[in-house]
Structure formats: structure tokens, C-alpha cells
Amino acid sequence: MTIIPKSRFYLSLILYMFVWCQRTLAQSDCPSEDLLVYSPFKPWFSFYQGSSQRCWSAAICLFQAADEARKQQFSATALIMGLLPLTLKDIAWPERRLVPVSHRLPVLAEILVRALSLEPVEVHGKNEAEKRTMTESWLTIHSPSLADWVWNLEQKRILFYVAGSTLSLLLTYAALVLVEVYSKRSSLGCIYPAFILTWYIVALLPATIHTLLSKLRHSKQKRKAKGILEANLNIVTADTPMTPHPNDVESAGAIVSVISEPSSYPRKTHSTPLGARDIKNQNITLADPRTLSQNGQNKSLTRSQIASAVQGAEEWWIVQLVWAIYYIAGTLVFTSIMAVTVIELFVWVMTGFAVTGASKLLALLLCMSFEVTGESRPRFIQQEGSTSQLKDTINKR
């Protein structure tokens, strides 16, 4: 029988005592299991004092104390949390997130509107009257109550509502921070209390890229369309001594959202405006309300209209990639909030609804602030009639 040397025996005993003390201290450092496992809206500083690094200690103790059923609940709530950025922030309102405008917004306003999850779409017409008519009638058909309220607001009142919506948005952002502070924080960085708000603010980056590349794409398409039109008009002039119709020349500058081949342009002039004639089966970004049937449904949906629910669907691939990375990051951030209970999930969803409503209302009012609204706007549509009368009026045009 081998006798263990005294030095080795004492060393093993000291090591065992050290490990035992460490485990005992670690277990005693955790709060009571009954208090910790189900503790909605109790952040780490309600259990620990001192360094913010103790945030990690609270999370570790919580998951150690949770049984398998509770861990399964945490996994389920994390899955629902991951759906929030894809459903609430990007919800299709008022109609596939599109807001028709008679003129393209200034760059900063366009960036803000896109960062707030709406998509401003310029309506093209042969004159200002037709642009304003199509802008007002499109929103009226898709959201009658909303359009009736917005288009009857005076400009001063719209600015007042913009200020009120901005304040509401800031309050909802503050609510996001409070909910995250009083939750179990994000596993991406427990000591940083505003991951969700940061993700909402970072939307300015993909919105900026989207806006700048969109302006570049539109300018290139406009130059291309003008060049093709001039070439075809020269061919028409050389073949037949006919004078181009004024509407064809006037609508040359309005062809911005059309991607056409030279063969799609006519070989002779017509009385129909070129903008209305050539964009019928092309990739337009907004439906002309005159193509609506009696029940208000579009007779033919183009590919871009169907895909318009995707952010940047009509833009270059780099824009879609940037938005995809942004929403993937949002899913990661939302699912990283640790140990979300059912009541906390309900509060997160309600807060998300509030942020979504405030964001989209502010974006819509920003778009309307650049339109002619209220009593001063031209009356091209009968406003005393019902929605069905409005649709009949548009269909007769």
C-alpha cells in the first residue's frame, strides 16, 4: 500500500477546500430561486449593488435556477420577440407602406420617411393638376378615413401635428429604453441598456443609402429614357413629316420609374400621352387610380406592385442587401433580450405597436407637409360624394 506523502495530501486538501468554498460562495451569491426565476421587470440592480458587470451575474443565476419548463418558456418568448421587427416596424400601412407624393421629397425628409418605415412614391402625370388628383385619389381609395383627415388639414395644423407626432415618437422611444432597462437586458451586452432603441435609430443608415442610390438610379433612367425618346422622335420625323404631339414631348421628363427597351416606344405619334401609353405594362411603382375597377381593386398588378411590401424592392441589389442586414440585426437584437416572461412579452408588443403607430403617423405627416392641403388645395375630386362616387369619377376619366 502506497502512502501518500504529507505534502501531496495537504495540497489536495487545500485544493478541495478552495473549490468547495468557491462553489458555496457562488451559490450563496445568487438570490433565492423562488424570487429570481419569475421576476418580471426586476433588473439586475434590484438584486445586486455595485459594478454594472453584476448584470451578468443576475442572468447566470437566473438560468441556473430555472427548470426545463421555464427555459422552454424563455425560448418561446424569444421566438416571438424575434418576429417583432419584421411585423410591427415593417407592417404594411396604409397600403404596402406606400405614400404617394406629387413631387419628390427633399433628401433629408425622404431619409426620415424611409427610416420611419414608409416609402414615398412620386406620382407622374402630364401636368400638376393630374399629379395632385392622382395623389389625393390614390390615398382616398385605399384609406378613405385617413385621407379625409389628412387632406383637409391646413398647412399650419399639419406642422402642429408633425410636432406632436415627433413628441409622441420620442415618448415611445423612452418607453423602449425603460422596458429594456427593467428587463433582463440583452445577451449581446448586458451592461448597455438601449440596444432596441439603437436599432431603431440606426435605420437612418440604410434609409440614407436607399435614398442616395435611388436618386442616382432615377437620374440615370431619366437620361436613358430621354435619349431613347429623342432618338425615336428623330426616326419618326425622318420617316414621316409629322410633328410630335405636345403631350409626348411634355411627358418625356415624367418617365422616371419606367425601364423600357427602345422597341417599346411608338413609331408614330398619338393623341394619348406617352406617359399613360407606355407605362401600362411596365414596372411602375404606383397604380394609376384610373385603372381601378368599380370595387376599387386594381385590374392588373405589376411585378413591382406585388413586391412593394419588400423594402427597396424596386432598387438596386445593394439597397435590398442593406435593408436585409438591418432586419437580420433587428431579429438578433430582439431575440437577445434574456429571460422574457409572458407579461414582459405583452408589454414589449404593446410598446412596439406604439412606436410603429407614432413612426408611421409622423412619416405620413412629413409627406403631407410638402403637399397643398386644406382649403387652399385645388378641388379636382368631389368631396361631398361617397367613396363609391369617387371611384366612379376616377373610372370615367
UniProtKB/TrEMBL annotation:
Query: Which residue ranges does UniProt annotate as crossing the membrane?
Result: 158-179, 191-213, 316-339, 345-370
Where in the sequence is the signal peptide annotated?
1-26
Q: Which UniProt keywords apply?
A: Membrane, Signal, Transmembrane, Transmembrane helix
Specify the protein name: Uncharacterized protein
Q: Which organism is it from?
A: Microthyrium microscopicum
